[in-house]
Amino acid sequence: MRRPLALAVAALALLTACTTAQDDGTDEDTQAYKAGTLRVLASSELSDMTDVLDRVREETGITVRPTYMGTLDAVDLLARGKADGAYDAVWLSSNDYLRLRPEAAKKVVSETPVMSSPVAIGVKPATVKALGWQPEDVTWSDVEQAVRDGDLTYGMTDPARSNSGFSALVSVASALSGAQSALTDADVQKATPRLKEFFRGQQLTSGSSGWLASAYERRGTVDALLNYESVLKGLPGLTVIRPTDGVVTADYPLSSLASAGAPAREDVRRLTEALRSPEIQRAITDGTHRRPVVASVQPATGLDTTRRRELPFPGSRSVADGLLDSYENELRRPSRTVYVLDTSGSMEGDRLAGLKKALTGLTGDFREREEVTLMPFGSDVKSVRTHVVDPEDPKTGLDGIRRDTEALTAEGDTAIYTSLEKAYEQLRADRDTFTSIVLMTDGENTTGATAGDFEDFHGALTGGQKDIPVFPILFGDSDRSELEHIAELTGGRLFDAQQGSLDGAFEEIRGYQ
Predict the structure, then answer these.
(1) Which of 100, 247, 441, 450 would be a feasible disulfide site paired with 317, CB 3.0-4.6 Å?
(2) Residue-range domains of the chain with CATH
(3) Helices 451-459 & 416-426 angle (0-180, nearest 10)
(4) How far apart (Å, rounded) are the C-alpha atoms in residues 118 and 410?
(5) pLDDT per position as a tens digit, 397-444
(6) What pLDDT digit, counting tens, does each position of 92-102 carry?
């Protein structure tokens, strides 16, 4: 079944697909180090450090050229040696996970914490009042009880891709198991019944904190978010709670890579020194709500300075693997996805072959209990095939997906909006799942319903059906503005397979399903 840590395909794709706007997409990443410009592999939430890094550049002359991706994906990239020569430094939310991968840990020759932020839960004030909570006294057990009673729902990032999600998972598992030291397999097993109850309350999942926050604000139906304190403090109208029975804290170490030369390492040292100066530490805490690591600098106003127990990180990869596998296939709500696939005439040849390859490869990533519907279209929807990955017999469902994928043929025009409407109709039943639609097209809409028709159709949807996001994939000759509009209208996100790869786009979307 699914191997949460085996994300090589995702990491390789994200190397090109998730570059920052500061990265112009050229081959510069693989060239020799240029004095004064550090190529940094960074956790995605560090995109909020732009202003601070601009200030550091003015003071030191060092430019940081970041490539953002999920922490766990970045660690996998390091472990496979794909960061050698492409990056000079790595700046992750934490190196705890990296240390579980010896092949990744040996790539790092230094690490210095720059700032910190604990995992917390941000709750709507009305919900805090209704629950009768005193924020300074809330425990993870209190949160679980509120979920069990049906009084609390929340969103959380995908632990298999995001360190905030993984740290939240570790925090909850440690607290609910009563572990007094690093989590063991026995602790996870002991906590599983309570964890199942806890994750019944998860109504939103995401591969990134940014989209999670946007989805939370858009829907307005979720009571809380689990994320880093710094992210939650950046959202209006949340009461941020650090549970008293312990948290896992990110310390954002800046680390030189073993593959980097002496000049690059010296610039990493200078950059670290500048980031830890009192002036920059104050700018960091005031601008990002993270906590300073320099004792002489006080945390920003509004950051609670009451001490909390630091929950230990898992001490072995086997425990981390087991915890992630349990979450993906047993604890979390199952996924339900309709793949609306352009198989019009323009897909003939290499494009169709690429689609088949990407979908076939994706079958190794589908979770137990997951429902997958393939809806190929041309001038209209050609067929609707649904498969379930049954925990008792996953092979049957996966073989069915592969068989239907191989049978895809290219013909007809491109009826994007008509096909999307039929996808929503397919998802009319109210189900306790993470539900989404993935749209892959290589062209513009040429027949059937128009963009205006689809806007009217979507505007008439009600309840949970209206909250189902569409994740379009930009591919071939598809129109970016058309697909961006679909994503914005439905609360989804656009994924770019023109700059990256189709395999990578499909894999990255997995964090949102």
Answers:
(1) 100
(2) 8-116+251-292 (3.40.190.10), 117-249+308-328 (3.40.190.10), 334-512 (3.40.50.410)
(3) 20
(4) 50
(5) 999 999 999 999 999 999 999 999 999 999 977 788 999 999 999 999
(6) 999 998 999 99
